[in-house]
Fold this protein.
Amino acid sequence: MKLSREEVLHIARLARLGLSDEEVETVREQLSNILENFEVLQTVDTDDVPPTAQSIHLSNVLRKDEECASFTQEEILANAPQKEDGFFRVRAVLE
Amino acid sequence: MTTDHDQLTIHEAHRLLEERRFSSVELTRACLDRIRYLDERVGAVVTVTEELALRQAAEADKRIAAGDAGPLTGVPMLVKDNMCTRGVLTTCSSKMLESFVPPYNATVVDKLEEAGAVIIGKANMDEFAMGSSTEHSAFSPTHNPWDLSRVPGGSSGGSAAAVAAGEAIFALGSDTGGSIRQPAGFCSVTGLKPTYGRVSRYGLVAFASSLDQIGPLTQDVTDCALVMNAIAGHDNRDSTSAPIPVPDYTQCLNGDVKGLKIGIPKEYFVEGMQPEVEDTIRAAIGQLEKLGASIDWEVSLPHTRHALAVYYVIAPSEASANLARYDGTTYGFRYKDGESMWDTMEKTRQFGFGAEVKRRIMLGTYALSAGYYDAYYLKAQKVRTLIRREFDEAFEKFDVLVTPTSPTVPFTMGEKLDDPVQMYLSDVCTLPINIAGLPAISIPAGFADGLPIGMQIIAKPFAEETILRIAHAFQQATDWHEKRARI
């Protein structure tokens, strides 16, 4: 399983991950190699086997919908890369 | 205070604190001094919280004076840097979170503070807990205190190395595919990965949510039980934490393993395993037999050979989803000179994440993408079911399974850095346990040319007591866990 450069760029775009030209080439080689190691999975018979998403069999964990203490606006904004008037400041979404 | 106290256990420190042989402030200063003196070479600590520690130690001394001290009160410890500490940097050893100061504590941190433990700092790790050597820390690698030219294992390498070097009396780590046990094995300390759901993950920075679990790294099994008593239990803030009562884990440390049934799965003695590791583990199992356990050497878990592939589909898939939040908007690093919102976001992630994290995001995104989801992610989840079933069947016959923790002794720094598949293989004995959500411990089992070898003991879900009982009996009969790194 050899990935093409276009496939690597497509995945990077899905992940919103910038990669340098050099990184694209390294990732292409290493991912191809890793995926080759995964091909063994296709040999396992999994007909009628249900998937396991997690190992503790809890479902629909509910709690009462009650008011409780929360963080202040100041606390939540404390780590913001950029803020203004109590808001997170970001680059324009629509140009 | 003399340097004899540098590598105390929790239970020894507790006794000496109670006897007023030294105060918690003195003990805390001794650990802080040791970090100052040693950590330039070891690189186990990313943030030292001296002021907080001395304040907590003074509080602990008051509790001790008032006769209100628990086993952890006044004992200096380190928290792996992927667990949130209110007002204290929590970096995940990543440039992405280099200046992140959480407004809240992880539940485990709250619980340790209630128990009176003294937090002296945050432990180095592979970036976002992705790695097996702590060489993927964005700040600096951690070195193995037994041989500074070798890795301490990972991703909780800072936690394990700090305990081995006596920089802290115990530490918390997290384990997604072996990240507590493999470094515990490499540094000759005791490390427990509890059952998935046994310890709250609230405030643990998410890597692979269906696999992550927090646990202790300590000098011995008694200490491990004491830390488990403090951190285990249900938490309303983690819906995957188990609503199951927590026993007193020290009650099972009775030295009695007579009649316990131990299975040795042959698939864990893998091709390419170092002969000294195999010999050491076989000898350690022989020791358990002498203590009265019955051993079956012919157990087979054939799906073990698929565990590596299952893990490296599932963990990166979950990671790619969990790490989507690092977009430079609300917290963490932001690339300053982007041309647009999208460009800013892509460059934030390009320059904020290191090579291994990017590799896993790419791998996970690929496995979840249209056209490949069924072939990779869904297929891996189905094989996951088969792996779990195989363990369930084995635990109908056996109380525990015993294996090596890792196929080799600690490798040299740089050795596997450019070959991800080789690096991933160092976790081949520990990954299947996370896939199945089981509890497992690594305890010191011997040395090869002065380099540590760990033995892994695995049990069925929520049977930590069986593990601790056997591990404790082994430590009563051997002194590997008493050997200390001399640096």
About this structure: The longest strand of chain B covers residues 440-448. Chain B is about 40% helix and 15% strand.
